[in-house]
Amino acid sequence: MSPMTILLSDPRVSAIPVEECGEPLVTLEPDLGPARARVRAALADRLRAANRALPDGICLRVVEGHRSDPDQRGIIERYSHQVAAAHPDASAIELEQLISRFVAPIHVAPHVAAAAVDLTLVDADGTELDLGTSVDATPEESDGACYFAAAGITAAARAHRDLLAEVLGAVGLVNYPTEWWHWSYGDRYWALLTGAPSARYGPIDDHGAAAGRST
């Protein structure tokens, strides 16, 4: 991980205000993956555009979009135990940073705002392409190969990651650099990286009820 990598636990992320725009959740079509993930409408439009921009025979497969608050908290709890066991000498602040490489603190979590997707690439037969690791491989499990810029992955995996960056970056999404599969739009992390004055999306529940304006 580069010393310049900004993690979701960074105070600069939580300092970004949220101006909730009230945009609804929509369900992605099957051609963007059998998960039929739910995301904000503008994010869905951007994913469709990115999918159209891919070379013939390659498609996006969205594995997950919106995640409930309880589900996010469950992931945090489970991964926290793994990190504490793997890094027994880490301080509380260091543990928070290590945990945020893989799962966002609840108050800034892009998935809870329906502003993020976990995705990969598949061929015309629906077979996943080589991206270096499986989606959701932890830093411990992958020895850091889950980081977008990780060294030591195959040339094919590097080319496929670069292809993701090309088509998703072109439609305004940003990558979380410790997870090659995680891309977002409209959340606090996106706002920080793009220089937007505020995030468009805050937490939203399964029925599409947003928490409203927050800071």
What does this entry look like structurally?
The chain has 215 residues and is an alpha+beta fold. The chain has a single domain (11-72, 103-194), classed as Muramoyl-pentapeptide Carboxypeptidase, domain 2 (2-Layer Sandwich). It contains 7 helices and 6 strands. The strands form 2 sheets. It has a 4-stranded antiparallel sheet, with helices on both faces. A hairpin with a 6-residue loop joins strand 5 (174-175) and strand 6. The longest helix has 18 residues, at 69-86. The radius of gyration is 17 Å and the shape is globular.
- Shape, please? globular
Share of helix among residues?
25-40%
- Please provide the ordered H/E string of secondary-structure elements: HEEHEHHEHHEEH
How much strand content do the residues show?
5-15%
What's the CATH first level? Answer: Alpha Beta
As a whole number of angstroms, the C-alpha radius of gyration is 17 Å
Layout of strands and helices, then pairs:
Layout: H1 11-14, E1 25-27, E2 38-40, H2 41-53, E3 58-64, H3 69-86, H4 92-99, E4 116-123, H5 139-142, H6 155-170, E5 174-175, E6 182-184, H7 188-194
Antiparallel strand pairs: 1-2, 3-4, 4-6, 5-6
Q: In a few lines, what is going on in this structure?
A:
The protein is 33% helix and 12% strand.
Features:
215 residues, Muramoyl-pentapeptide Carboxypeptidase, domain 2, 4-stranded antiparallel β-sheet, two-stranded antiparallel ribbon, 6 strands, 33% helix, globular
